[in-house]
Amino acid sequence: MKGKDSSDLMIICLYVDDLVITGSNENDIKQFKEKMISEFKMTNLGELAYFLGLEFIKTSKGMMLHQRKYIITDVLKRFKMQNCNTAPTPLEANIKQINDADETSVDITLYRQIVGSSRYICHSRPDISFAAGLASRFMEYPKQSHRVAAKRILSYLKGTSEFGF
Questions:
Q1: Looking at residue 128, what DSSP letter applies?
Q2: 70 φ, ψ to 5°?
């Protein structure tokens, strides 16, 4: 949304019943919020801190985005990996992922959930994008080695949960 001044900008993000408003002109944001509150039943929760699994921390250099809470309390706990050892990298070096018909198959639903969670974390963690993309290639017929590789991503995330940008 453009303001009166060509340099003014307001960004409104709506997801179901959650609304995030930001922009370059504090007065325009305040007026917009007042108008919305007069038209709809709304609660102003103040400064942005948590939205859709994304955490925002205000620093001296701006805003930092990370998913520490989502990684620790949602993902690692969900897949019973909160006590796992950490991995130094999201992917083992020189790994060759193939679809070996003789290898043991794994629970396809669980595998897809692990990979899906990893892909969502890529929003704030581009360092796992390649590993999550590689794991995604085996969503149709995952094998034991693929599950091990997908769980390594989670082990890496456990040790680096505070990373963000």
A1: G
A2: -60, -45
Residue 136 C-beta-side C-alpha neighbours within 13 Å: 12
* pTM tops 0.70, yes or no: yes
The answer to whether the beta carbons of residues 25 and 3 sit under 8 Å apart is: yes
Q: Which residue has 């993309």 as its token pair?
A: 133
Vertex 158, ends 94 and 138: CA angle to 5°?
45
Q: Given pLDDT bands bounded at 50, 70 and 90, which one contains residue 4?
A: low
Burial of 17 (0-12, 13-18, 19+ CB in 10 A): exposed
CA distance 27 to 65: 25
Task: For the chain, give percent helix, strand, coil, nearest 5.
Answer: 40, 20, 40
Q: Which residue has tokens 């805003």?
A: 63
Phi–psi pair at 130, nearest 5 degrees: -65, -45
Over the range 71-110, which residues count as b (16 or more CB within 10 Å of their CB) and which as e?
Answer: beeebbeebebeeeeebeebbeeeeeeeeeeeeeebeeee
Average pLDDT over every residue of 139-160: 97
| Residue 56 in tokens | 């925002």
Amino acid at 73: T
Residue 28 φ then ψ, to 5°: -65, -40
